[in-house]
Amino acid sequence: MSPLRSARARLPVFALILWALTRALFAQAAVAAYEIEVVHTYPHDPTAFTEGLFYLNGVLYESTGLQGHSTIRKVRLETGEVLQKLDVPAQYFGEGIVNWKSHLVGLTWKSQVGFVYDLASFKKQREFHYEGEGWALTQDGRQLIMSDGTSQLRFINPQTLKETRRLTVTLDGKPLRNLNELEWVKGEIYANVWQTDWIVRIDPRKGAIVGLINLAGLLGAADRIKGQTDVLNGIAYDAKGDRLFVTGKNWPKLFEIRLRKAGELR
Question: Mean of the pLDDT values across residues 194-206?
Fold first, then answer.
């Protein structure tokens, strides 16, 4: 999400999320924990304040945020080269994106408006509206799934772009807020938890978190620039190649990772 929230607002939320994630380690219900192995490292534009990310037909699609600097990009995975770019109008803070058939659907943060573009040309086709904030999008082949910064995920009809239902995401039975960038992976919803180094794996039927992925230390200290490098955010999955990619806001690298189960936590 935005770096513009005050430190006073961030700290209680951040502490709450860390508390919830740590508490899950001692939860009575089993939650699978995962560590990661880096399979490959790719270059990533360190000026890209990543909001949305997905992989399709051999390339990455990425949206970036910040007022007056928001873009939608088609990016060559291997080199980080921007093959195609759309500058989002300066009045909008760009957020998550997802593909739907021959379209690309994008959100804005607080403007309560989203856009549908032609996937090939990035030409705007229509607008749609929603209440509240827009954070991230993914899809399961039948419907779009949207995060809004709360503990709820919204399910969206891809034809009408109207909300059909909501799902509360819970960790150890308690709602977990600040769900950010989303990706549909093998029947689960993966979500970054904003301001943390965690990705959670969500059961899309019940909303329960069934897995915790720890990415602490993924981007080394030597690759971090004070005042520029921001938080982990961005998940993309290559279903054909079974490859999982992650990056962060203003990160100089994008990583292909493999999950390694750390055991059942009780």
Answer: 96
